[in-house]
């Protein structure tokens, strides 16, 4: 088998986020997903200026370092820092179109999102074009609805949904797959809040990331929160 043929049969997945900080709620469901759909590689894509979210508390360099520390020694993951090099909003479709050009028309590409993002996908920049360049793999999120907000969006979802994960590697793009991954009720907001209150977070994120957070003085406790 030539390398180009192998690439055409390899499903590559991309997982974007602010990662402020990266935590087990990001990593563990994706590791389970890799077993479920036979993923060989997941690329973390930290973004710089998220269009729909408050600005990160950690710098781009700090969030990149935390992502690198979180996956150290885990061959499933790698980190792509291209979005952190921008000083403009990170639009997912533009990054995916660039990756599609780099990988060619036949490479199966998947973009991993949470159920919360699926429900608000219609607000994303050029969201209708996403399935023209990749598959969408949806991770469950605790407390979020299973159906989209309008009949039109639900019909779009049903038209592209596939139950058999093997179809993701048999086609380069165009499908939506709902993963059967664990529902971990962990958020970066919760971690930042705990840190600001001076509470322990060791159960929520890798120890290497926690040590780095301490060394950088990130998400420091607010003295007033202890009164």
UniProtKB/TrEMBL annotation:
Gene: nadD
Functional summary from the UniProt entry: Catalyzes the reversible adenylation of nicotinate mononucleotide (NaMN) to nicotinic acid adenine dinucleotide (NaAD).
Name the record gives this protein: Probable nicotinate-nucleotide adenylyltransferase
Family: Belongs to the NadD family.
Keyword check for ATP-binding: yes
Catalysed reaction equations from the record: nicotinate beta-D-ribonucleotide + ATP + H(+) = deamido-NAD(+) + diphosphate
Keyword Oxidoreductase: no
Cytidyltransferase-like domain sequence ranges: 14-194
């Amino acid at each position: 088998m030539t390398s180009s043929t192998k690439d055409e049969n390899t499903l590559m997945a991309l997982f974007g986020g602010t990662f402020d900080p990266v935590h087990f709620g990001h990593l563990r469901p994706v590791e389970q997903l890799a077993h479920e759909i036979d993923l060989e590689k997941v690329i973390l894509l930290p973004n710089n200026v998220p269009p729909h979210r408050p600005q990160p508390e950690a710098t781009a360099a700090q969030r990149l370092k935390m992502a690198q520390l979180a996956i150290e020694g885990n061959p499933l993951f790698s980190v792509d820092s291209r979005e952190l090099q921008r000083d403009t909003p990170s639009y997912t479709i533009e990054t995916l179109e660039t990756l599609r050009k780099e990988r060619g028309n036949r490479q199966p590409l998947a973009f991993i999102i949470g159920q919360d993002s699926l429900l608000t996908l219609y607000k994303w920049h050029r969201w209708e074009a996403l399935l023209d360049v990749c598959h969408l793999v949806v991770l469950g999120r605790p407390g979020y609805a299973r159906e989209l907000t309008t009949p039109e969006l639900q019909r779009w979802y049903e038209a592209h949904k596939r139950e058999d994960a093997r179809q993701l590697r048999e086609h380069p793009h165009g499908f939506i797959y709902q993963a059967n991954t664990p529902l971990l009720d962990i958020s970066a907001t919760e971690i930042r809040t705990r840190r600001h209150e001076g509470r322990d977070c060791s159960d929520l994120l890798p120890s290497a990331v926690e040590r780095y957070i301490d060394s950088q003085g990130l998400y420091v406790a607010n003295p007033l929160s202890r009164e």
